[in-house]
Amino acid sequence: MARYGLVIGIANYNNFRNLPKAVTDAEKVALVLREHGRFEVQPLPGKLVESENRWRVAPDKKLTGKELGSALRMFLLEKAKNHEALIYFAGHGFEALTLTGKQKGYLATFDCTSDGQNAIAFDDFNDLIRESQLSSLVVLLDCCYAGSFLEKSFLRSSFPVFNSKQDYCLITSSREFERAREDVVGTICSMA
Question: Do residues 158 and 103 make contact, with C-beta atoms less than 8 angstroms apart?
Fold first, then answer.
């Protein structure tokens, strides 16, 4: 059975602090998946390295919300259909209040704003996962406050699909009250 990985490392932001080491982390994950997991890896944002004849995460490219949304849709509903899949995200995660005063979680993209415009809403991400037909799925969120999505009943409200599918797993890099950070060794996590 084929294995597919979508590895996202967003370094450049228009409205958030840049995270240059997000690309380093994403590239390391992609390397492990290729070499030890025999995954076919799609890096985002990607660039072709002709001398290696493979795609790598591009530190200088900008990934918009529209591009990431389209890539997630294609990956979950078409490319990885009926196969094992893994999604890794290194970048900014944030929460914002909706117009009704409800707190919602988002994955930040180059062109998003702090109110969630052009970001990937976790509710939308969950809907794509629910629609997908995968044999298994692992989602790794390496971003700030990722644990708040688990610890504030996130699985029940925003990611219920992980409760209903036996072979689905969600892993976060930080707790509800923690900021993930770039440190000297090039990681964006503070594991709890």
Answer: no
Bridge-based pairing of strands 103-107 and 93-97 is antiparallel
Q: Which of 139, 129, 155, 109 minimizes the C-alpha distance to 9?
A: 109
Q: Domain of 150: which CATH number? A: 3.40.50.1460
**What's the CA gap between 170 and 91, in Å, rounded?**
16
**Number of domain units in the chain:** 1
Which residues in the chain show pLDDT less than 50? 152-154, 158, 184-192
Give CA 54 to chain center in angstroms. 21
Domain-located, residue 21: yes
Query: Max CA-CA distance within the chain?
Result: 52
**Tens-place pLDDT, residues 115-139:** 999 999 888 888 898 899 999 999 9
Contact 135, 40 (CB under 8 A): no
Residue 183 inside a domain? The answer is no
Identify whether 38 is part of a domain. yes
Range of the domain at 51: 3-172
pTM of the model: 0.85
Nearest to 119 by CA among 15, 4, 1: 15
